[in-house]
Amino acid sequence: MEFVNNLLLDWGMGTVLSVILSYLIMVLVMCVICILANYVTKKVVLNVISHFITKNKFKWDKVILEKKVFHKLSHVVPSVIIYYFSSAFPDYQHLLQKGAVTYMLVVGISVIDSLLDAVNEIYKSYEISKVKPIRGYIQVVKILLFVVGGILVIANLIGESPIILLSGIGAISAVMMLVFKDSLLGLAAGVQLASNDMVRVGDWIEMPKHGADGDVIDISLHTVMIQNWDKTITTIPSYTLISDSFKNWRGMQRSGGRRIKRSIVMDMSSICFCTDEMIMKFKSIHYLTTYIQNKEQEIEAHNTSNRINTSNKVNGRALTNLGVFRIYIEQYLRNHPKIHTNMTCMVRQLDPGDNGVPLEVYAFTNVTDWETYETVQSDIFDHIFAVAPEFGLRVFQNPSGHDVKSLSGEHQGDYRLVGSG
């Protein structure tokens, strides 16, 4: 600073102007050096480190690189330069050093935070992490890190010892717990929701206890706002999402498939062995031709090898209309353009009950949009209801008023015939 100031004075500048220009020149020189140092660090040093890490056979250093530990560490270089350049500004040296140290502390906290994330990711690559996870312990360490780091930053800014701040925290903690109870609960819940990625804006969540079933539209310190499907708004305290259970449909939306799980109940009195006429009819159905042919050969080979008398279908093996219908529905689903081919697709028979035998369709659509999903599901069951009589089956339903009226009309006709005779 003195050298620049004297040089400007030798050039004939005034005292005040030379001091101002010398400050500006030194600030400019410091900025240029910081920019150059930052450029060299990020473009040269980090590239060399990245090249070395990507070429070796270890995996843990790649995780550290993905968590940007080295990138965040590079921010220390400009602050170190400013710290040592502060002596060129005697009037502002203390402020510059304090600001540089504060920035270094913040960078250090950020680097340790990313390093802890990397440690958790590396640990998760081992099988033991499924039995003994360390995510909770990492979060506790992070809390301690931010608390200690915040104390050090504040102590550096006010120029006091951190011990003084620690002694004062115990005295006011009780008052803060009472005054800011909801804020502290919301803050703790927010940290857990964010760190565990439990809920995001735009997620579809379901919480029947609080009448919430819709999309999350806002997450604040104290509340989470949910727009229900009927366009009403439900407001839930943030910490309720931690203390109570809720369903998040994000996994379904990410997977690209939405489940169909619905049953159709068949009247048990309509179930029978397939006759030759029925088998010939089933062979003409595209989805069943190959199945019927293969099944006939398999049944014939089994009955022949076991010398079974097939004159009575009770003996040996035989096709039933319910079994063929179940295979037809399964093949129909597998060939449906809106059914996900890489997810579970089956038609299973549930336990018989008073109403009949339930056949459950368990499959996933390849669309997750609610409106499209309901349309696909309805189309599938429209077809199933319509095609069931083609297999000699009846879908069960309790008698309706029309059924009772029809039966009473038939009986009245019988009575007239008897009376006229």
UniProtKB/TrEMBL annotation:
Segments forming domain Mechanosensitive ion channel MscS: 183-250
Keywords in alphabetical order, please.
Membrane, Transmembrane, Transmembrane helix
TM segment ranges: 20-40, 101-119, 140-157, 163-180
- Going by the entry's taxonomy, the superkingdom of the source organism is recorded as Bacteria
- Where does the protein principally reside? membrane
How does the entry describe its membrane topology? Multi-pass membrane protein
SUPFAM superfamilies in alphabetical order: Sm-like ribonucleoproteins
Residues forming coiled coils: none
Location in the cell:
Endomembrane system
Cite the Gene3D superfamilies for this sequence: 2.30.30.60
Query: What sequence ranges are listed for the domain Mechanosensitive ion channel MscS C-terminal?
Result: 332-393
Task: Identify its protein family.
Answer: Belongs to the MscS (TC 1.A.23) family.
Protein name stated in the entry: Mechanosensitive ion channel family protein
**Species of origin:** Paenibacillus hexagrammi
